[in-house]
Specification:
By secondary structure, the chain is mostly helical. It contains three helices and three strands; from the N terminus they run αααβββ.
């Protein structure tokens, strides 16, 4: 078996991180996992066109899945920090950069690294 290329390693890592967040939010149904696979396929092409973007894949896949979930099911992941007011989704920061995190812009805090929502606590279901 051939060793994985840096691109394939990044894509596998991105898939695993986003799936971990989906599992933490109890939304990792088959159709949602398909959204992850679609994003990974699209981002493979994107990184083949711009190899320097390999470090940005995890955040981009997280954003892709978040956007697809919003269109089909509702906001995800919901902010576990803000206990009152309207439920709102977390955002991925940086939008295009390494080491992506879920942040709450309302409270101005980093909630968790992409892939670590399970450690951030409840409130992760879509609405």
């Amino acid at each position: 078996m051939e060793p994985l290329t840096p691109l394939e390693q990044a894509l596998h890592a991105a898939r695993a991180l986003v799936l971990a967040d989906l599992v933490a939010g109890d939304v990792a149904e088959a159709d949602v996992v398909s959204l992850v696979e679609d994003s990974v396929a699209q981002r493979r092409w994107w990184v083949e066109q711009w190899p320097d973007g390999v470090d940005y894949v995890a955040g981009l896949v997280a954003q892709d899945v978040q956007d697809a979930l919003l269109e089909r099911y509702g906001r995800w992941p919901l902010c576990p920090v803000c206990g009152s007011g309207d439920p709102h989704a977390l955002d991925v920061e940086p939008e295009l950069g390494p080491d992506p995190h879920w942040v709450c812009h309302k409270a101005g805090v980093k909630v968790a690294a992409v892939g670590a929502l399970g450690r951030a606590g409840g409130g992760m279901q879509s609405s």
